[in-house]
Amino acid sequence: MAKNNSLLEILGTSLKLGLTSFGGPVAHLGYFKNEYIDKRKWLDDKTYADIIAICQFLPGPASSQVGIAIGMLRGGFLGGVISWFGFTIPSVAVLILFALFYQSFALGDATWIASLKVVAVAVVAHAVLGLGKKLTPDRPRIAIAIAAALIMLLFPSAIVQISIIIAAAILGFFMFSKQVETKVQPFSVSITKKQGVISLSVLAILLVGLPILSQTISNSYLSIFDTFFRVGSIVFGGGHVVLPLLEQEVVPNGLLTSGEFLAGYGMAQAVPGPLFTFASYLGTMISGITGGIIATAAMFLPSFLLIVGALPFLNELRKRSSFQGILTGVNASVVGILLAAFYDPVFTSSIANGGHFGLAVILFALLHFWKTPAWLIVIIGVVLGEAVAYLFA
Q1: With contact defined as beta carbons under 8 Å apart, do 59 and 235 qualify?
Q2: Does the pLDDT of residue 73 top 80, yes or no?
Q3: Residue 329 · residue 170 · CB < 8 Å
Q4: What are the transmembrane regions (predicted)?
């Protein structure tokens, strides 16, 4: 019964996040911290930061992977599946419906979408401040964070982001290996190392085998699965990076027109949850609801295989001072990367006038000082956003 209650708790919490987590992957980490760490105490800040650092190394949707990992730590493999389902299914449902009726929607300039972007500004600011206090408490780590932010702002790309993380890992090894805590709070994970190796082996086999099968067997569903599994396995840098890769896969091949692709992209920006659910829209446009479900499963399956492959080894590695030093450097760089992302694209794409900035300040104050729940911040932001739009019309 306790296990069932735990799984129900995971489902309820992740579903609430899936309905309220607007603003993209950086904002999602803020919502997760508020719900899983600050409110429910499922993890401590150090473990949460280490999981984020590991997921930054892995291809795929980082925020979804963090959510899957937390679900697995809380309720085993099934907990990870349930955590992903709750966080992802609201966005999947909306985008599949939108694919069926997209010509009837004209939401691009809606006031509430602009308000949701302002909400994301407050949430990300709160997350960066909170993580910064924990992960950059001294001058060397502050320097790493600032350097990471400056480099990302000057040279924004997924390759640069990975390069920053690798450089920070090397610096962390030499600078912090002898300074880190000798005792780290361990976490319990029901996945064995053997299962982890099997999971990574399955990933490799599918990456090699699916393209061969797709070329050999003429089947539209198999082709969809191959395309989206491949993209989900190789993309670094989050949802915005996956969009040009998907565009190259579906538009030049005539599966969708450029207009249809952009319509789905606009809607994907307006719904909560992971941006990778854009695959749900594309799959439905290509081959109906079944195609949407297959595309969604293929897009996220690599995330599960990678997390199952990484988690069994994380606990043991965290005990080693050298690995702790590496994570210390990486965590500091992540703060800088999040800070750069807070400015661009979160701030630059959300704050259009003084009213928006004032609304963001109010929402941040409610979240940070008055400890207002994130889901209520979303509602307040949308309501006040209407007033701001009226005043600045």
Answers
A1: yes
A2: yes
A3: yes
A4: 81-105, 111-131, 143-176, 196-215, 227-246, 281-314, 326-343, 349-367, 374-392
